[in-house]
Amino acid sequence: MADERFTVTPERYALVARFALVMFTLIVVTGVAVRVTGSGLGCPTWPKCTQTSLYTELNTHGVIEFGNRMLTSIVGLAAAAAFIGAFRRRPYRRDLMLLGALLPLGVIAQIVLGGFTVLFDLAPGFVMSHFMLSMLILVGCVVLDWRAHREPEELAAPGGEDRVLTRTSWGLFALGAVTIFAGTAATAAGPHTGGTGTDDLVPRLVFKGADTLNWVISQHARLATLLGLVAVGLWIVGRRRGVTREARVPLTRLCWLLAAQGVIGAVQYWLELPAEIVWVHASLAAATWVAIVWTLVAAGGLRAWPVLAPRTDLRSGRGLSARSSR
User: Fold this and answer.
1) Does the predicted TM-score (pTM) go above 0.85?
2) Which of 42, 156, 218, 316 could make an S-S bridge to 323, C-beta 3.0–4.6 Å?
3) For each of the chain's 326 residues, which pLDDT tens digit applies?
4) What radius of gyration, in Å, describes the C-alpha atoms of the chain?
5) Residue 8 and residue 127: Cα distance in Å, rounded?
6) Does the residue 323 lie in any domain?
């Protein structure tokens, strides 16, 4: 009876996985807010907020940074629920357990890296690494969510994806990662260093001297344009080849997101990088990355990985998946 009481159904676990994805995306949005409002050193030390207190002083920038740290606690709970829930899910699936384990590990890594980021006064390399680690964790979140909403029979069925779309989706994924990295470099070279609100002098990327910002923005814009063209081209190819709606939907949403990002990026450049628009642009980057990963997964980009084969546990009496029963 006690064992049954703590059993997690597939439907409930799917909700847990979706909640984790939402929370990990939201923490990126609030993290960007910390940077563009100049609140990165609103809590100037770590793990305490100040030298004498775990809590923030009553000022705007302290509240923003402290609030982001507190949200990390909720994200940590979501990560723990995804991991523990995978053990209690019936039928048990090893793929969900392995993916669920990545989330708490990601939270721990982010906490440590965030601490170094504060201790080293928001050095550009640490800030960029902090954001890119978030993108890496989101890969695990999307894959977990996608697989948690599907039964082993669906995941094991061969021939369910178009090979051309699958291979080109990997190229889209790689190009998207490079484009986002260039975006983090553009932010690191720009005026929103994260310390302006607290009057802290934070170093910027200056590897090309005074021209660094314009150079990095130009490279980011070229990459983003190429990414948009590849996404549209992939959508056209997928439609002509008659791929499934499940594979087309994330690609369609990605195209719309990239179109919006192009407009917002141009506007923020013309208006000389106002903080509010930079926040929207960087926040939508997280949504765009989710759509890129979703496109890859829906195209079958990870189905062939043996480690993610959705095996079940015979010793627990939970039955066999379609693949393991053959």
Assistant:
1) yes
2) 156
3) 445 667 899 999 999 999 999 999 999 999 888 888 877 777 777 777 776 676 666 567 677 777 888 888 999 999 999 999 999 999 999 999 999 999 999 999 999 998 898 888 888 999 999 999 999 999 999 999 999 998 887 776 554 567 788 889 999 999 999 999 999 999 989 888 776 666 667 788 888 888 999 999 999 999 999 999 999 999 999 888 888 888 889 999 999 999 999 999 999 999 988 988 999 999 999 999 999 999 999 888 766 555 566 555 543 434 333 333 33
4) 21
5) 37
6) no
Token digits of residue 54 = 């775990």
Number of domains in the chain: 1
- Examine residue 322 and state whether it is found in any structural domain, yes or no: no
Query: What domain range is 202 assigned to?
Result: 2-149+159-316
Tell me whether residue 249 is in a domain: yes
What is the Cα–Cα distance from 58 to 46, expressed in whole angstroms? 18
Contacts of 174 (CB under 8 A, 6+ apart): none
